[in-house]
Amino acid sequence: MSANYVTIEKYKYVEPIHLNIEIEKEEPLQCQVLKLMLQPIVENAIIHGSASSEHEGLVLIRIYEELQDLRIDVRDNGKGMSQEQIEALFAGNHVQSGTRFSGMGVRNVHERIVRLYGEPYGVSIYSELDKYTLVQIRFPLLQGTDSNHLGGTKDVSGIVG
Questions:
Q1: Is 151 left (phi over 0), alpha (psi -120 to 50) or beta?
Q2: Are 19 and 46 in contact (CB under 8 A)?
Q3: For residue range 114-143, what is the model confidence (pLDDT) as tens digits?
Q4: pTM of the predicted model, to two decimals?
Q5: Mean pLDDT score of the chain
Q6: Helix (H, G, I), strand (E, B), or coil: what is residue 133?
Q7: Are strands 17-23 and 132-140 parallel, antiparallel or unpaired?
């Protein structure tokens, strides 16, 4: 999904957008994650991060295990967000005037993960204005889980290929 999606977005914005995918070990690629979970995060990194930046856009997707969890980080080198913007995004009252951005995609991904796996799983956002935004997605390590039980999942390899 991600490499193909970024290719399409490059043509849309006519700006260089570089996508780097780092995979620390192959095992996490077999883990089950929710379908349509990475696309809104990558879309935001391109639209509100890299595409709005004054320099070449960079989107880094990092997949790794940490403390028995699956982690997927999406980082961009764009304009960043204030802490107030991040809090408003999760509160559901964040709408940027003049854009189609409502934060619904990020919030939806977070709520789906929390609903299915509970706290402390979900989405966290760290950002510094005019420097970067880092979105961290945290899942339990679930290898070979029945996707019908999870309401539609796929291997991590299927979302970054």
A1: left
A2: no
A3: 998 998 999 999 999 988 999 999 988 876
A4: 0.77
A5: 75
A6: strand
A7: unpaired
Residue type, 16: P
Interior CA angle at 159 toward 36 and 56, to 5°? Answer: 100
Distance CA 34, CA 113 (A): 8
List, for residues 44-96, the tens digit of each pLDDT value: 888 776 655 566 788 899 989 998 888 999 999 888 888 988 888 888 764 45
Q: Which residues pair with 48 in a beta bridge?
A: none
pLDDT digits (tens, 9 = 90+) for 7-49: 555 555 556 678 888 888 777 677 777 777 888 888 888 877 6
Start-end of H helices in the chain: 2-13, 39-44, 83-91, 104-117, 157-160
Q: How far apart are CA 151 and CA 18, in angstroms?
A: 32
Distances (CA, A) of 103 to 44, 84, 100, 160: 9, 13, 9, 22
Six-digit token string for 68: 């028995």
Sign of CA dihedral 49, 65, 88, 12: positive
| Integer Cα distance of 74 and 1 in angstroms | 14
- Alpha-carbon distance of 6 to 43, in angstroms, equals 8
Q: Are 23 and 29 in contact (CB under 8 A)?
A: yes
